[in-house]
Amino acid sequence: MANRNLKEILFNKRMLACVVLGFSSGLPLYLLFQLLPAWLRSEGIDLKTIAVFALIQLPYTWKFIWAPLMDRYNLIAPMGRRRSWMLLTQISLFITICAYGFFNPQLNITSIAVVSTLVALFSASQDIVIDAFRREILSDEELGLGNSIHVNAYRVSGLVPGALALILSDHLPWSSVFWIVALFMIPGMLMTIFAKEPHRAEAPKSLKASVIEPFTEFINRAGIKHALLVLLFILLYKLGDSMATALATPFYIDMGFSNTDIGTIVKGSGLVMQILGGFIGGIWMVKVGINRGLWVFGMVQLVTILGFAWLAHAGPFETIGTIERGMLAVVIGGEALGVGLGTVAYVAYMARETNPAYTATQLALFTSLSAVPRSIFNALTGGMVEALGWEMFFYVCTFLAIPGMLLLFKVAPWNSKTKLVDA
Q: Which 8-state DSSP code applies to residue 288?
């Protein structure tokens, strides 16, 4: 970045692609773990059923299995490997999101589960190819900034299902809400159609090579012990934070807040602090590196979980006034700042552990592991809340954040100096 003007790096078509595709990547995920629980809870579905819906997100944890297919094959020759897979997954997401509008949770819960599983499958597949596309269009010099922009755009997309849709649900039928949300997939489709196909990485020569080589390279690079520690760290670093926010929207509802409160206060405050955290995180890593970022930001993530326990201790509220809304804004703002900080360092760490020759499949493996808490452990949260209560549940989540921090001694020592990505 020192060799080029920051303005020149920031304002170009590649960064615009990071913005639009980051938004397209985040939208279906936020729909699944923010809008879907709110819809089901509002329609009288119990917490255990809502929590079990976390299992529909399993495709995010297994996407490395079919990532080699997306690396190897080109579906539409004129468009190229990356753009053809992106367009297919985006069209599929548009159709399945619209499909929610035809079902009633009280009568069609099984059908909703099937549609949700398809949304997760197409969303995870879109993530695979967008990650590869982003890695290939960005130069090594642009990679850090491009990933930061992608993460922030990803977060901004949460405004649609997590804020706009919730506000609209107080005024429109849920069917109309889901159809409006689906329309926000169109910008990503247009970007895919008009973008240029990258040619930085050649397709693997065979399906066998696309399956085997990314994994053998990762294991052989620093030994199997280090490889296992890296994978365990990726699994555990955000476990506590992920479980704490798994039922966030039902938690706010149970505390007495309306959908409009959640849409305006929670999502507005959270978004600003997440974006702020992303930019602070980017600046911090430029100055002191990824390792120290993981330490500092991980501690922020851990401490801010306790804010939820504080809010649970004070609630539920019989009436919602300025004080209660202020408490909510402080808690969510603090937690969102921690998430924004931690995610930038977390994504940068995964990129650093990736060999550019096998980016798509290795990143799919890493991001699949990072999704395990969200798709498997989070399914336990409904039963935990009913057994422990909200306050004790958040104390348990704080404790679960500790093991990932301890692994930093092995995978990212404080005084170790490492580059963002090895070219």
A: H
